[in-house]
Amino acid sequence: MTEARVADATGNWVDTLAPPWSRPYLRLARLDRPIGSWLLLLPCWWSAALASALAHDVRRLPLTVVLFFIGAFAMRGAGCTWNDITDRDLDARVERTRSRPIPAGQVSVQGALVFLAVQALVGLAVLLQFNRFAVVTGIASLAIVAVYPFMKRITWWPQIVLGLAFSWGALMGFAVILGRIGAPALFLYAGSIAWVIGYDTIYAHQDTEDDALIGVKSTARLFGARTHRALIVFYSLAVVLIGVAISLAGAGAPAWLGLAVFAVHLGWQIARLRIEDPALCLRVFKSNRDAGLLLFAGLLADALVRIA
Predict the structure, then answer these.
(1) What is the largest CA-CA distance in the chain?
(2) Among positive and negative, which fits the CA dihedral 115, 121, 122, 124?
(3) CB count, 10 Å around CB of 41?
(4) Distance (Å, rounded) from C-alpha 189 to C-alpha 177?
(5) Would you tell me how many other CB atoms lie within 10 Å of the CB of residue 18?
(6) b/e for 241-262, b at 16 or more Cβ within 10 A?
């Protein structure tokens, strides 16, 4: 059973290099598909860079970037484990997810709960390296993470709740660097939420047929053929709100250049997307890591320029 691969994640390092006994757990944490960890991490990095620029001090930024990296991968793994525990019956009825470790019988629910606790402890160890305000801010996100898996059963907008959770890092950088959350952080958070709604709508188009059969709701099903227009709205909103955050932080040309390139990338995604092609939906979704890194590069450059 440990050799069975997840249908939409083959040929990766987990399948080829990891010890066989560890593979189901690494798959449960999505370390065979790290794109979600990157998407959770990027708002953390954006906010850390923007807060450092606002403080005119980048001395804490390198360590903060590393700690956020570790924390994002640990907590995304914990979140996916929790999601798979709660969704195990639904996953067993969807072609793309029925090979995941729990519905496939590779990991028991009890084993998954223990693994969840281990990952959460790693995340807590990272969080405790920060100031008290940041610790409290980080812990507050757990309520959103806990309820997210149930949202697809009761609302057509589960992507909003995912956005609230996956964008929390937009607040964390300010909490860590400045010890407070002001208007720039809140606008960055709102912009990131709009971005998440957009890219997760693209992701959800992989499963619209199965979701319709089992009654799972999503913005992909809600928008349907209007998805491109919806993406224009949400991606435009993301760019505008992040732009407001940049303006309020008094950022300079490098940050605006990063935002401009980010916006172009989002426009490319909309033009490229074909919702009837699940493989293309996955590729376009994954490209958001590159979009987010481009924005981070601009914000980081601006922080460095400010102290020059």
Answers:
(1) 58
(2) positive
(3) 26
(4) 16
(5) 18
(6) bbbbbbebbebbebbebbbebb
Burial of 185 (0-12, 13-18, 19+ CB in 10 A): buried
How far is residue 26's CA from residue 42's CA, in Å, rounded to a whole number? 21
Taking residues 54-77, report their average pLDDT: 96
pTM of the model: 0.92
Residue with tokens 């376009």: 284
Which residue pairs from 238-241 have beta carbons closer than 8 angstroms and sit at least 24 positions apart in sequence? 238/191, 238/192, 238/194, 238/195, 238/198, 238/266, 239/191, 239/263, 239/266, 240/191, 241/187, 241/188, 241/190, 241/191, 241/194
Closest CA to 149 of 88, 197, 87, 191: 87
Which of these, 292, 278, 308, lies nearest to 95 by C-alpha position? 278
- Contacts of residue 7, defined as CB under 8 A and 6 or more positions apart, other chains included, come to 95, 96, 97, 98, 99
C-alpha 249/C-alpha 191 separation (Å) is: 15
Angle between helices 158-166 and 183-204 (to 10 degrees): 130
H or E element in which residue 228 lies: helix 227-248
Amino acid 57 reads: D
**Residues 70-75: what's their mean pLDDT?**
96
**Using CA atoms, how far apart are residues 295 and 297, in angstroms rounded to an integer?**
5
Cβ of 55: how many Cβ atoms within 10 Å? Answer: 18
Distance, CA of 45 to CA of 290 (rounded, Å): 13
% of the chain exceeding 70 in pLDDT: 96
Do residues 199 and 234 touch, judged by C-beta distance below 8 A? no
